[in-house]
Specification:
It contains 8 helices and 3 strands; from the N terminus they run αααααββααβα. The protein is of the alpha+beta class.
Length: 152
Amino acid sequence: MRDINVIELYIKRLQKSDHLKNKLNDQILYGYKNIIDYLKEFVFLKDYYTYENLMEASKLELSKRELLLEIVYILTVKEIDVLKYKFEVYDEENDRMIDVNAERVFRAYLKNEFFHPLNGKTISIQEFNHEIIPFFSTTNSFKMKVKQDSNV
C-alpha cells in the first residue's frame, strides 16, 4: 500500500483547484493545515465541530476570523470534501437538539424568507440566526482517507 499523508493529500487537492488556489496565502494555508491535522486527530472521537472549535484548531489569531470563514469555505467545497455544513435548533419543549435540513437553511437565505424551524412562523433574519446553530462534521471521504493513513 502506498504511503498516504492526509495533510499532503489535501494540500495537493487545494493546489490543483483552479478557483481555490487563487485564494491561497500563507495564513490560509497555515490555518488549513492546522484544521486538517486537528480533524484527523479527532475524526473518530467526535464529529461535531463549531466555528469556535475550528478557530482554535486553526491556531490563527482571533482577529483573523474572516480567514477562518475562507478556510471553512474551502474545506466544504466538493473538490476538497473534508467538512459538511450541518444545522440544528434547540427544542425547549423536549429539551433536545433537532437537526435542520441544510438545504432548507440555504434556501431561506437565498429567498430571504425565514421561518422558525419548529413552528413554521415567519421570523426575522436575526431571529433565524439566533435559532439556527451551525456546526460541521467530517465527510465520509475524509474519514476513509484518515483510516487509510492510520493503517499504513
